[in-house]
Every structure is written in structure tokens, then in C-alpha cells.
Design brief:
homodimer, mainly alpha, 0% strand, elongated, DNA-binding
DNA sequence: CACTTGATGGTATGTTTGTACCATAAAAGA
DNA sequence: TCTTTTATGGTACAAACATACCATCAAGTG
């Protein structure tokens, strides 16, 4: 046999080229050739590792979904660590961290969220993409928020009449909407961040 | 001359075919041929009325933007009328009407919002679509909401410490996010509506 | 009645796309 | 050493696309 290459690494390299292409020219403009050029390989190689274009798109989407989970978990982890290893983090800080993940700040997160959104919209009309793992991440986050909000309410940090489930739905929708408006260039990331903080300030009473 | 046709009507007819095609197969899959077939005319006719595909897409987008304005204004008008011709409508009802416009209920509004969203996302990467009237409608709505919220606060219907501008931003983002989640099939229209109502219930005190 | 002009159909063309096919170098196993 | 398998390149091909071109019919105008 020849070089005996690490397949997963090669696939990841090609997928990254696809994501770059999708972010700069749009997911609809992604072509086997443009991906190959972006990855610095021949079209034949892309075929070799992904057989068909549809499978390439599928694989890229799965990678995005995995990354989304990692991103959110990392954000939460940072907050947990920042509060010191012994103290439990305040629910408000954890919730803020999760919500702010949806706001694209640097170029890297902008790219990520743009392509993620392109996929989400595409999945509505494309049967091959439909019913994919797009729903898992949001559902997971919703359950997580409900738990945090419930804890906060029982600790007396919010209005006792607050409905944790409804509030989680609204928070998630607001952060998604704010992130989208930043992508569309309607708002700056700072404005979106300020809006999230304002809203959380109204939701949470000062502890004690 | 021949039949002497109403150009605007013909153009509207073709654009409607484009919107249907975009809603069912995705904006990226829209082709001169599919539009022509959908409109029941020859490809040559589409060329005749819109010259190039880019101009066709542009014209359809403009039509969407105009419709969006009409939709919102109609919603507000309904609320104003429902309260009786002499009484001023309660800000809460007006705000609710505006926000619920973003939630797709029947098939017609689902089609409309889906294509609108497809255009919005496309405009991020497509230079021909960039910097278009997408921003006008949201800005207008934001100003409108700020005015309503300010009036409500001054009438004592909300917490006096409420920041009308920040609150408007959050409300707009939440309704956009909820509408999107309905399009993506994550939530039902009823759930989204309930979330909007819940949030407004917390924002507005009962008048008096 | 001739003629111009608006509205339409059909077809040709050049380009781009995804994919299939053919070839080959190189390493490992017999 | 011969053969099989892995990784790669190049090219060919049919389909689809946007667009340009050529033709025709009908309705008003002179």
C-alpha cells in the first residue's frame, strides 16, 4: 500500500474547505471543484473520500452539529471554572454564557453561525437534509435552561411566578433572533450582547 | 400591436410562480424553467419581462419587502379597528399583533416567511442582494415598538424602570427567533404564540 | 391596405455541474 | 518477486442551466 493516510484527518480537512467556501460564497454556491481547490486537492480525491456531493454535505452538517455542542459545553465549563472549583456557578452567569454563544463576535464564530444557519434553512426544503440533528442541540439547551431557571426561582433569584419553561423558550428564541440579526448586519455584536444582558437583568433579581 | 398586455400583472404572475417554487424546492433550486412552468408560460416570456435571472430575483425580493410592510400594517389596523373607532387601542394589543405577524400560522404565511428568510440568508453572501430593503422593515418596526412601549410605560402599564429601546430589541428578536423555529419544525405555531403572550403578560401590568 | 411594433414561441449555444471511467505509483503481503 | 490493495491524478460525458438569436402572429396606425 502507499502512504496509508489518516482518513478522518483528510475528511476533516476537506470539510473545513467546504465550510470556508460556504461562508464566503454561500452554501448554494459550493461545488465539488471549489471545495477541491479550497482544500488544495483534486476533485477526484473529494470523490474518493465522500463519494457523492450529498454525502459530503451531510458529513459537513454532522461536523457542524458536533461543534455546536462542544461550543456550548465549553462556554458553560468556562463559567463553572471561573467561579472557583468549590462554589457552584450562579445560574444567571451560566444562562448568560449559553445565550451569548449564539451571538457571533469574531470572524470564526461568524463563519460558524452563518453556515449553520444556511444549513438550517436549507434543511426546510431539501429532503436529504430534513429531520437531521438540528433539533437535538436546541432541545438539549432548552432542557438545560429550564433546569437553571427553576433552580434560580427556587433560590429566590427570580419572581416566584416565573414560568421556567416559557421563559426558556423566549430566551432561546431571543438569542437566536439576535444572533441572526448580527449575521444580517442589522445589529452589532455589542448591541446584541447588551440586549441579552439587559433582559437577564430584568429576569433575575440580585441574589439575596 | 397585439393583445396589449398589462405588464405589471404579468410580472406579478411570474413572481408568484417564483415564490411558490422557492417555497417548495428552495430558493437555490429556482430556475428560469421551473418558474416558467409554474407560471404556465414559456421561458422566453420570463426573459421578456425580466431580461435576466438576477433581475427576476431582485424583483421578487422587492415584492416580498412590500408585502411584509402591508402585512404588518394590516395587523395593526385590525387591532385598531377591533377596539372601536373612537377608543385608542391598548399598546399591549398592538405590540402583540406586530409580534405575532412573524409566526407562520397558515400555509400562506408559512410560504411567505420561508422565502423571506431564504432571501435574508442569501443576501449575506450574494453581493447582488446585499444592502437591500431588508433592513428598512425591521428598523421601522423597532421604532414603532419603542413608541408603543414608551406610551405604555408613561401610562403606568409597565415597570417604570423598563428600557423601551432594549425591550423592543428583545421583543423583535424573540418573535423572529420563534418564527424561525416554527419554520424549522422545532415548535408549533401555537407554542410560539403562547410564548409571545406569556412574555407580554410579564412585561405589561394589567392597565390600572 | 401596408407597416410598424408589442408579445410570444422555439431553438441554438457555451458554460458549469456531478459523476463515471481509466490510469498509475507505491507499499505491503505471498 | 509478483500480486493485490490504497491513494491519487486526469479526463470524458451527459445533464441542466442562463442567455442569445430567429421567427411569427396580431393589433393598431398611416
Amino acid at each position: 500500500m502507499p502512504k496509508l493516510v489518516d482518513h478522518e484527518e483528510r475528511r476533516a480537512h476537506i470539510i473545513d474547505a467546504l465550510l470556508r467556501a460556504a461562508a464566503s460564497d454561500g452554501l448554494h454556491a459550493v461545488t465539488m471543484r471549489s471545495v477541491a481547490i479550497g482544500a488544495g486537492v483534486s476533485v477526484r480525491l473529494v470523490q474518493y473520500y465522500f463519494d457523492t456531493k450529498e454525502q459530503l454535505l451531510l458529513a459537513a452538517m454532522e461536523r457542524l452539529a458536533v461543534r455546536m455542542g462542544e461550543r456550548v459545553r465549553r462556554r458553560v465549563g468556562e463559567r463553572v471554572g471561573a467561579a472557583g472549583s468549590s462554589t457552584a456557578p450562579r445560574p444567571r452567569d451560566v444562562v448568560e454564557a449559553v445565550l451569548l454563544e449564539a451571538v457571533p463576535t469574531d470572524e470564526e464564530s461568524r463563519t460558524f453561525h452563518l453556515v449553520y444557519t444556511e444549513y438550517a434553512v436549507l434543511s426546510v426544503t431539501d429532503p436529504a437534509l430534513a429531520g437531521q440533528r438540528f433539533l437535538a442541540a436546541p432541545d438539549e439547551m432548552e432542557a438545560f435552561l429550564v433546569a437553571q431557571l427553576t433552580a434560580a426561582r427556587e433560590a429566590g433569584d427570580t419572581d416566584p411566578r416565573m414560568d421556567a419553561r416559557q421563559e426558556a423558550v423566549v430566551l432561546l428564541a431571543a438569542s437566536a433572533g439576535l444572533g441572526l440579526s448580527v449575521l444580517l448586519g442589522q445589529r452589532t455584536a455589542d448591541d446584541a450582547t447588551a440586549a441579552v444582558r439587559y433582559h437577564l437583568g430584568r429576569l433575575f433579581h440580585p441574589a439575596r
